[in-house]
Amino acid sequence: DYCKGGYHPVQVGEEYNNGKYTVVRKLGWGHFSTVWLSRDNDTGKHVALKVVRSAAHYTETALDEIKLLNKVVQANIDHPGRKHVVSLLDSFNHKGPHGMHVCMVFEVLGENLLGLIKRWNHRGIPMPLVKQITKQVLLGLDYLHRECGIIHTDLKPENVLIEIGDVEQIVKTYVQEDPNKAKDEHRNGRRRRRTLITGSQPLPSPLNASFSQTDLSSLNKLMAEQGKPVPITGPSPSPSQDVEMSGAAGATSPTKSMKESLGISDEAAQKEREKTASPEVILGAKWGASTDVWSMACMSGTKYGKDDDHIAQVIELLGTFPKSLCVGGKWSQEIFNRKGELRNIHRLRHWALPDVLREKYHFSIEESKRIAEFLLPMLELLPADRANAGGMAGHGFLDGTKGMDGVKLEIEPGTKGEGIDGWATEIKKQR
Ligand code: ATP
């Protein structure tokens, strides 16, 4: 991978962009890039420097990404969701022994939501925190959909990053709830914090300042993961085009990430994506921005298996599929017969959401009803009927969310695609 067209051999202490950034340590890596904690020598603050592989298709993807990320930065600074979507701070090219590398600079973020879910894996994340993250993700999505014309397409716990001050505060605030777990949390928390947040070097303000925050307001960020978001209106290839491009007949999900369209197989990533994939995406039917709202409602982490198991579980939870979905999608016929019945799975156990919440997750009758009332509008099977993110951010269920007082959009909860282009069907423009 460290060869011509591959990763750039970044060194700690090395300078980038004519001395503006100095590399401090590695933060992580992915198929596209390596990511480095770096110091911005103009401001003294730390940033995340992403150095993309140099081959032409990575460069082109990165340049498309930069266009979308610039839109996110500029679209509407007054929208309350903007600060919950990660900001691109800078971008430039860097020449190295393996070619020219696109570099992107982001604010430094911390642990992802999957990590947080694991910290509480015995009991689930405490409800006040769930509400806070939910509200912030919904606001971020509304910003992407309404103001930027971008569909995320890959919303899942790994792509929701918690800002670093929060992780400290969250552990302090909530770990006392379960004294038996406190020791473990403390141990894990310390280890992870060292890896993910501070490293061996003390970070200057404002990063240290956020450790002393007493609430979690405004700190969680929805990461519009690079390479994943698509514009509602072209020009990058839509997910359904990706499938055609890669010729993957019967591919399980059209929300293939760029890396899959580049032919890089990543079974684990695909499995993760399947957990939050909407019915229209699994069936290859028309889809739009509303698919992100479905994914948002699924992030509580139900495990799904193959496509038809996944669809069967959705039917068990939400009822029979509308005819248009049973027959209309590119892959509908693989899963449903002509009568609209599942081909391979015959015995279904109907278990409605409020009953699941009560019987499986032990919520009270009242609480189960309230949670279901909040989730079900986001789980409407027909994309056109699904509630929009901004409206749901103002739902009564999220009233009193910590740190979010007065954060409000003037959008009625339960409204659908009004005012959002490409809500149920992506709009494509010719390049
Ligand atoms: P892939 O396409 O495989 O997901 P990628 O090359 O696009 O990978 P990312 O997933 O964006 O790269 O980032 C790789 C890793 O770098 C992340 O898992 C995370 O650990 C770390 N990272 C990325 N961005 C940030 C950030 N802003 N702050 C802190 N860490 C980050």
From TrEMBL:
The keyword Repeat does not apply. It comes from the Eukaryota. Transmembrane segments: none annotated. Residues 176-211, 227-277 are annotated as: Disordered. It catalyses: L-seryl-[protein] + ATP = O-phospho-L-seryl-[protein] + ADP + H(+); L-threonyl-[protein] + ATP = O-phospho-L-threonyl-[protein] + ADP + H(+). The keyword Cell membrane does not apply. Keywords: ATP-binding, Kinase, Nucleotide-binding, Serine/threonine-protein kinase, Transferase. One of its GO terms (biological process) is spliceosomal complex assembly. Its EC number is 2.7.11.1. Coiled coil: none annotated. Residues 21-398 form the Protein kinase domain. Residues 197-211 have a biased composition (Polar residues). Residues 178-187, 268-277 have a biased composition (Basic and acidic residues). GO terms for cellular component: cytoplasm; nucleus. ATP binds at residue 50. GO terms for molecular function: ATP binding; protein serine/threonine kinase activity. This is non-specific serine/threonine protein kinase. The chain holds residues 95 to 525 of 525 of the full protein.
